[in-house]
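step 3/5: co-fold with iron/sulfur cluster
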Amino acid sequence: MFIYAGGLLGFMLSVTMLTGFLYCRRKLYLERVLGLKVEVPPQQVLEGTIIHAAIEYTNVTERDLVCSIDKLETKEALEDKYKRWSMELLRKAILLNRREASELGLELLKLFRGLWPALEMHALDRAHNLFEFQSQTKLIGEGLWEALTPKIRAEVKVKAQKLGLVGVIDWLEKEGEEYTPHELKNATAPREGVWHDHMIQVAAYAMILSEAHGKVVGKGYVHYLKNGALRPVVVNAFLRDEVERLIRQVGDLVSGSQIPPYVENKKKCEKCPHKAICYDGEAIRKLLNEHQNI
Ligand code: SF4
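step 4/5: write tokens
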């Protein structure tokens, strides 16, 4: 079994650090080692908080929704039930944050309209999952909920000690003892397959789940919200090797004192929040000195 960061370094790496390394290892070093902060616009922070709260509510209340289904439903009826339920949860999450929204001058209705598409897809996927299951089993009410597979949980925190990795899976599907990670991306799918960093992310989650549950997880999915594409990721031995290599590289980077070179693709620098400091030799020397004196 592969053992690296958790055992040797004494700390865990996050899955997002692996994808951050792929994007620009210098940026990862500036943030994770030298402590540069990324200023996230307050509206984006608030939107993230609201979506997170709405998804938490779905995890907690889906049982009640399914238990209330007292007859065999059509696909359209279930879509309607799930959409209404999700809308209500989003409304509740927005109302919970109305003071913050008003401080930012945001209209609640506009906020709702902007956030709804991400949750709608989530609601429809759950409705379709339930429809397929109910069509096969003819179950209703509590019996339907108890037997329902796969069950989906959103924003699930996961951890694998031996790999030394932690992360949060957007959706975790559980069918019997089988686990499948799903990532939701607010992006358009490539012509074929998935973008490379998304593949690494799904593979890393599959490996964490494999370690945590003692069973190989060989597949995951990426949902591309901008064009509604659902793409599978097969987590084979080559991909697992690549993730293990990345874990070693990221572990070396964050425990080392060497700042990595500039990224080759300079287009990334144009929109990078650290551009000014990154290209200022004096500022970088100062940060490195401060870090070495800690
Ligand atoms: S400015 Fe460019 S090289 Fe520097 S951290 Fe940002 S992306 Fe990386």
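step 5/5: annotate
The longest helix spans residues 108-137.
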